[in-house]
């Protein structure tokens, strides 16, 4: 009993662990909420693009010695806007546009970073996260930006839902679909930027997509999904961090693996939809079969 | 005669560099139930989208209740084709219908009693009140069509535009929708629907508009007995079977 208690409390003795846990918790929370919209709209690839797009901004901020979170946010928002604008051209599919911009911005980031002396080490911390090296001011930025994202999502939630459900009808009743896309892209960008330090550039997509996808398996209600996803995200992140503390292994990787394990458990055991729990002989529901024919 | 609620005059529409509608003249009045008929690619959906302000008009004027389509946006009921809707979205029937009123609610406002009442009424009218808590993904094709109609009705619109509401639904649902549409017509709603079901359209509609890039004919079903009109609309060489189905051969 005391051993378990000590395991739970021991990391809190250290300032850097407290900061790491706080950031993991907040990142998981915010990414879970905004990730629900990402998963439902099928825009996981946009999340991937934005997470790479943030890179040149961080590189510039690093070279100039200014705030990394701010630099990343600016670059991510610019790329998100470029994607939103270029996808208005019907001849280009969204995934092509995204592919172009995310590779380009990542290339730009590497070039900028290579101008700074000794860039190898900082490159690694951008790519794989440096959750134990978070400063007090970083914690404050994460909290403020995270609160902003949550507030904005709460305000726009029903509009995001209407635009995702049926763009044609949303346009027809005069909802500003393009600007809703822009707002959603910006929210995704900010969620990614505040999570970068926890899990790094490459793995941040998991924080955005995995908890929301797991939550989708558990429920057919958006409201429930938007409570479950942040719970899974925050819980999984904190658990991953504890595991990293206990076994002295890479934090970002363990956070992502913990979330993946939760997703797999949901996939196997989710009520009604799980591989091992769904009723037999209903591989294709009658409704779907009818609709496809 | 009353002022038309939808007034389309000499409208030409270009899409992707192609002329999709040419010099279209069309009027819709309160209490009318009009069928928009024509082959694939005739511009039926484009005509609906023009009225909704979703397509730029190259030439001509479109007035909705005396206003431009842009100004009138959010007042028309619109039932798009079923595939436009994300049926895998985790939302209940009631929630989906309520999205028809999202644009009326401010960012900081919650749904009012009026919103809830409009949604409940709409669900009642399409006979989906009992299924209101069911996830939309579990509905049959006919039930899905009824949800889309209810979403449009939640606005309590004076003009209702439906894009192929009868496609891929069974006879009972078709009957329910027919009764609903004639009921709305009798209440003074102006209803315009595109359809490929010529027999149903002939039986149901007070007027048929035959469209193929431009209006070929626009009259009561009984007045459209001229074989040539149907041949021109559908570009057919022989129309015996079609006309026999419609009962206009003479």
TrEMBL record, chain A:
<feature type="transmembrane region" description="Helical">
    <location>
        <begin position="177"/>
        <end position="196"/>
    </location>
</feature>
<feature type="transmembrane region" description="Helical">
    <location>
        <begin position="139"/>
        <end position="156"/>
    </location>
</feature>
<dbReference type="GO" id="GO:0043190">
    <property type="term" value="C:ATP-binding cassette (ABC) transporter complex"/>
</dbReference>
<feature type="transmembrane region" description="Helical">
    <location>
        <begin position="225"/>
        <end position="243"/>
    </location>
</feature>
<dbReference type="GO" id="GO:0071281">
    <property type="term" value="P:cellular response to iron ion"/>
</dbReference>
<comment type="similarity">
    <text>Belongs to the ABC-3 integral membrane protein family.</text>
</comment>
<dbReference type="InterPro" id="IPR022392">
    <property type="entry name" value="Anch_rpt-typ_ABC_trnsprt_perm"/>
</dbReference>
<keyword id="KW-0813">Transport</keyword>
<dbReference type="Pfam" id="PF00950">
    <property type="entry name" value="ABC-3"/>
</dbReference>
<feature type="transmembrane region" description="Helical">
    <location>
        <begin position="202"/>
        <end position="218"/>
    </location>
</feature>
<feature type="transmembrane region" description="Helical">
    <location>
        <begin position="20"/>
        <end position="40"/>
    </location>
</feature>
<feature type="transmembrane region" description="Helical">
    <location>
        <begin position="97"/>
        <end position="119"/>
    </location>
</feature>
<keyword id="KW-0812">Transmembrane</keyword>
<keyword id="KW-1133">Transmembrane helix</keyword>
<dbReference type="InterPro" id="IPR037294">
    <property type="entry name" value="ABC_BtuC-like"/>
</dbReference>
<dbReference type="GO" id="GO:0010043">
    <property type="term" value="P:response to zinc ion"/>
</dbReference>
<dbReference type="InterPro" id="IPR001626">
    <property type="entry name" value="ABC_TroCD"/>
</dbReference>
<dbReference type="GO" id="GO:0055085">
    <property type="term" value="P:transmembrane transport"/>
</dbReference>
<protein>
    <submittedName>
        <fullName>Manganese/iron transport system permease protein</fullName>
    </submittedName>
</protein>
<feature type="transmembrane region" description="Helical">
    <location>
        <begin position="60"/>
        <end position="85"/>
    </location>
</feature>
<feature type="transmembrane region" description="Helical">
    <location>
        <begin position="249"/>
        <end position="270"/>
    </location>
</feature>
<keyword id="KW-0472">Membrane</keyword>
From TrEMBL, chain B:
<dbReference type="InterPro" id="IPR003593">
    <property type="entry name" value="AAA+_ATPase"/>
</dbReference>
<keyword id="KW-0067">ATP-binding</keyword>
<dbReference type="InterPro" id="IPR050153">
    <property type="entry name" value="Metal_Ion_Import_ABC"/>
</dbReference>
<dbReference type="Pfam" id="PF00005">
    <property type="entry name" value="ABC_tran"/>
</dbReference>
<dbReference type="InterPro" id="IPR003439">
    <property type="entry name" value="ABC_transporter-like_ATP-bd"/>
</dbReference>
<comment type="similarity">
    <text>Belongs to the ABC transporter superfamily.</text>
</comment>
<dbReference type="InterPro" id="IPR017871">
    <property type="entry name" value="ABC_transporter-like_CS"/>
</dbReference>
<dbReference type="GO" id="GO:0005524">
    <property type="term" value="F:ATP binding"/>
</dbReference>
<dbReference type="InterPro" id="IPR027417">
    <property type="entry name" value="P-loop_NTPase"/>
</dbReference>
<feature type="domain" description="ABC transporter">
    <location>
        <begin position="6"/>
        <end position="238"/>
    </location>
</feature>
<keyword id="KW-0813">Transport</keyword>
<dbReference type="InterPro" id="IPR022508">
    <property type="entry name" value="ABC_trspt_anch-rpt_ATP-bd"/>
</dbReference>
<keyword id="KW-0547">Nucleotide-binding</keyword>
<protein>
    <submittedName>
        <fullName>Manganese/iron transport system ATP-binding protein</fullName>
    </submittedName>
</protein>
<dbReference type="GO" id="GO:0016887">
    <property type="term" value="F:ATP hydrolysis activity"/>
</dbReference>
């Amino acid at each position: 009993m005391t051993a378990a208690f000590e395991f739970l409390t021991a990391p809190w003795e250290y300032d850097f662990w407290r900061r790491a846990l706080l950031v993991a918790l907040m990142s998981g929370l915010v990414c879970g909420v905004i990730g629900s919209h990402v998963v439902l709209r099928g825009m996981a690839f946009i999340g991937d693009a934005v997470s790479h797009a943030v890179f040149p901004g961080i590189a510039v901020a690093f070279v100039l010695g200014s705030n990394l979170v701010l630099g990343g946010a600016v670059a991510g928002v610019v790329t998100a806007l470029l994607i939103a604008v270029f996808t208005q051209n019907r001849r280009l599919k969204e995934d092509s546009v995204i592919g172009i911009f995310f590779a380009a911005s990542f290339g730009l980031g590497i070039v900028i970073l290579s101008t700074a002396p000794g860039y190898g080490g900082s490159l690694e911390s951008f790519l794989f996260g440096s959750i134990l090296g978070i400063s007090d001011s970083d914690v404050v930025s994460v909290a403020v930006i995270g609160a902003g994202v949550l507030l904005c999502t709460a305000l726009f939630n029903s509009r995001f839902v209407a635009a995702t459900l049926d763009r044609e009808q949303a346009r027809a009743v005069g909802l500003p679909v393009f600007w809703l896309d822009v707002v959603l892209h910006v929210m995704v960008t900010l969620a990614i930027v505040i999570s970068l330090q926890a899990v790094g550039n490459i793995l941040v997509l998991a924080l955005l997509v995995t908890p929301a996808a797991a939550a989708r398996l558990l429920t057919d209600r958006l409201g429930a999904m938007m409570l479950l996803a942040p719970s899974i995200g925050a819980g999984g992140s904190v658990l991953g961090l504890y595991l990293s503390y206990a076994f002295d292994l890479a934090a970002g990787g363990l956070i992502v693996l913990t979330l993946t394990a939760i997703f797999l458990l949901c996939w196997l055991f989710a009520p009604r939809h799980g591989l091992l729990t769904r009723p037999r002989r209903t591989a294709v529901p009658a409704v779907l079969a009818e609709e496809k024919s | 005669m009353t002022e038309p609620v939808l007034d389309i005059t000499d409208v030409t529409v270009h899409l992707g560099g192609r002329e999709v509608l040419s010099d279209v003249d069309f009027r819709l009045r309160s209490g009318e139930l009009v069928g928009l008929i024509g082959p694939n690619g005739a511009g039926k959906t484009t005509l609906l989208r023009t009225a909704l302000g979703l397509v730029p008009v190259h030439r001509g004027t479109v007035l909705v209740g005396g206003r431009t389509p842009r100004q009138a946006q959010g007042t028309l009921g619109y039932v798009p084709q079923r595939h436009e809707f994300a049926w895998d979205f985790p939302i209940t029937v009631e929630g989906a219908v309520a999205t028809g009123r999202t644009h009326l609610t401010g960012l900081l406002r919650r749904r009012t009693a009026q919103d809830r009442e409009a949604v409940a009424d709409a669900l009642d009218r399409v006979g989906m009140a009992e299924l209101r808590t069911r996830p939309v993904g579990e509905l049959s094709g006919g039930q899905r069509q009824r949800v889309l109609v209810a979403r449009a009705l939640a606005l309590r619109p004076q003009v209702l535009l439906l894009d192929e509401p009868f496609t891929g639904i069974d006879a009972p649902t078709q009957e329910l929708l027919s009764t609903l549409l004639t009921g709305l017509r009798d209440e003074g709603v102006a209803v315009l629907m595109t359809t490929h079901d010529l027999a149903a359209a002939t039986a149901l509609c007070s007027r048929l508009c035959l469209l193929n890039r431009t209006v070929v004919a626009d009259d009561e079903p009984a007045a459209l007995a001229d074989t040539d009109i149907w041949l021109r609309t559908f570009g057919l060489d022989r129309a015996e079977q079609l006309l026999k189905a419609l009962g206009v051969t003479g």
